[in-house]
Amino acid sequence: MKKYLGIVFASASLFLMSFAPDYSIEQVLVALKNGNASELAKYFDNRVDISLPNKSDNFSRNQAEMILIDFFSSNVVKDFTVKLKWENNGSQFCIGLLQTRNGNFRTKLYMKQKGGQQLVQEIAFQLEE
């Protein structure tokens, strides 16, 4: 009986886990390439480190979304090119070039495994000269 309950419990756990969102860095990169701050914010952890040329701090998910909406409205995205992407111990990293109407930004992105999903912990934009 215990063996049967164990199998039922394991099956139910796997079934429920299949409904958890499976965020990946690819989805985040699509939102970044489109300059879509609201879509990007769906992948943020509760708090996110945002680094911009004129502002850098740790923000709540909602604050970070508003800051990036403002950033993308001032710097309309033309393209995003991945330069380097890798994984390490359940974390995902990306370095790329965000091309905007106002210039190019070296972009760093860090996602960490939390609660069974990848969430953005840090995103940084550095203006290239």
Give an overview of the whole structure:
There is one protein chain. The protein is of the alpha+beta class. The chain has a single domain, classed as Nuclear Transport Factor 2, Chain: A, CATH 3.10.450. The chain is 34% helix and 47% strand. The protein has helices at 2-17, 25-33, 37-41, 61-74, and strands at residues 44-52, 55-60, 77-88, 91-100, 103-114, 117-127. It has a 6-stranded mixed β-sheet, with helices on one face. A hairpin with a 2-residue loop joins β1 and β2. It is globular.
Q: For the record, what CATH class applies?
A: Alpha Beta
Contiguous helical run count: 4
Residue runs with pLDDT of under 50 for 5 or more positions: 12-21
Largest beta-sheet details = 6 strands, mixed
Total separate domains: 1
What is the strand arrangement across the widest sheet? 2-1-6-5-4-3
Distance between the termini: 69 Å
Percentage of residues assigned to helices: 25-40%
| Mean pLDDT over all positions | 88
Order of helix and strand elements from N to C terminus: HHHEEHEEEE
